[in-house]
């Protein structure tokens, strides 16, 4: 069964809390929604953890990118482990775990737990569930909601975000290139250890799809394909990066 859950957080924020939280549940076979109310307490720690996570993630990415650019081997990128230890990957992992733990604890606070219990009583793990969170808080939209226990228990759920105010569009702007197939651009940055023919057969076996596969493209070819005038529905990018220990 397909359900839609719209969770409105109102005009609260992580520093002041969300005093009024409403959750509406719609089902395909029943157009009349069910509505539940609750609240969420302030959680400034989530904002701090997110900012620390973002800074650490960006630092790790910048260091890895620098190492890749300095690599002299074009066919196989080998990155010194010493190059990425100034910012400990263990510390980053611990920070990710702490952020996930604090989000789950926040969503189990007394003011909101009743909404969770009522939704779980009405939903089945096999159901397709579309969850929309309406909020003005930009940090809320950036938190790793997919790590919450609810999404682990209901694996066919997906989440999206919306502002608390919106209007219906009178006319949808359709693509200039209407099509019946999904356009997929597949880019392989390294062919070593990859069965290209097997990869190609797999991609071409996807139903109702149009596949473009390019291997180790030059910068200009990459740009030309990426910005194709017809656009792409899915971008598949595979890059192999191997770590090696620093040589004595």
Question: What gyration radius follows from the Cα positions, in whole Å?
Answer: 23 Å
Q: How would a textbook summarize the main sheet?
A: 5 strands, mixed
Number of E strands: 10
Order of helices and strands: EEEHEHHEHHEEHEHEE
Strand proportion, as a percent range, falls in: 25-35%
Helix residue percentage = 25-40%
Q: If helices are DSSP runs of H or I spanning 4 or more residues, what is the number of helices?
A: 7
**Order of strands in the sheet with the most strands?**
3-2-1-5-6
Tell me the overall shape.
globular
The helix-and-strand class reads: alpha/beta
How far apart are the termini? 60 Å
As for the number of domains, it is 2
Which spans of ≥5 residues are poorly predicted at pLDDT below 50?
72-86, 240-248
Q: What is the residue-averaged pLDDT?
A: 81
